[in-house]
């Protein structure tokens, strides 16, 4: 999942975060394995 996140541009990361109701910073932590996804 980290490779997928890293392959996205900053703009794409922001769009993805908006679609799932989160922030790019939080998703970065999830994709890097530091946080568990929770909503």
Automatic annotation (TrEMBL):
<protein>
    <submittedName>
        <fullName>Transcriptional regulator</fullName>
    </submittedName>
</protein>
């Amino acid at each position: 999942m980290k490779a997928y996140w890293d392959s996205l541009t900053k703009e794409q990361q922001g769009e993805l975060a908006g679609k799932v109701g989160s922030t790019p910073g939080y998703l970065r932590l999830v994709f890097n394995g530091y946080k568990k996804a929770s909503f």
